[in-house]
Amino acid sequence: MSTMNAEKASRMAAEDRRELVLQAATRAFARGGYAGTSTDAVAREAGVSQPYVVRMFGTKLELFLEVFRRSVGRIRDAFATVLDEGPFDPASEDDKARMGLAYAALLQDHDFLQVMMHGFTAGGVDEIAAAARQCMGEVFATIKRTGWDDEQARDFVAHGMLLNVMLSMRAPEHVEPGHPLTALTLCAFGEALPPPTGAGAP
Fold first, then answer.
1. Tally of CA atoms within 13 A in the half-sphere of 139 that contains its CB
2. pLDDT at residue 201 above 50?
3. Among 25, 153, 164, 171, which is least packed, fewest CB within 10 Å?
4. 14: part of which helix (H) or strand (E)?
5. What is the rounded distance in angstroms from the CA atom of residue 154 to the CA atom of residue 189?
6. What's the rounded Cα separation, in Å, for the pair 90 and 148?
7. Is pLDDT at 49 greater than 70 in this prediction?
8. pTM of the full predicted structure?
9. What CATH number matches the domain at 60-192, 2.40.50, 1.10.10, 1.10.357, 1.25.40?
């Protein structure tokens, strides 16, 4: 193997290892949040040593920020993809539905959802609060590319955040006749209501 090819293979291997740790960190932080997850827990999830995680990412805060920014960045990128596909009519319900479906597809990944929610509620950590403000600003700026006014864009974001909260409390898994939350769940999700993933789950 030439020196150039060897360097390329080494670089790709390093990128693969980094991706493995990031995926493991996403799962670990999704379960325990920022405060409740250690770099040791991430290392165990990834099947590597704790010093390896620290060498690769530095502190737990730096690792969480990367995982969080990456998660929220998926929303920005999903909306941008819809808008880059062609003309978007701000008055069109069909075009609005395309944006909604792009977001709904992301919500199938519960680890992504939980990391995002943990980040938004960790405002007591200045660095995380700053990252959340920046990321949400980028998402909102992307949504404004639709041509919607501020109030329309706000309503779209608000509906998405409602879905986040409902999924975090696993409301769609507990749609029960007569339950006070059932009407809100059905109204919020409509035909996009996800199928139950654990009947009888607590």
1. 25
2. no
3. 164
4. helix 3-32
5. 18
6. 6
7. yes
8. 0.84
9. 1.10.357
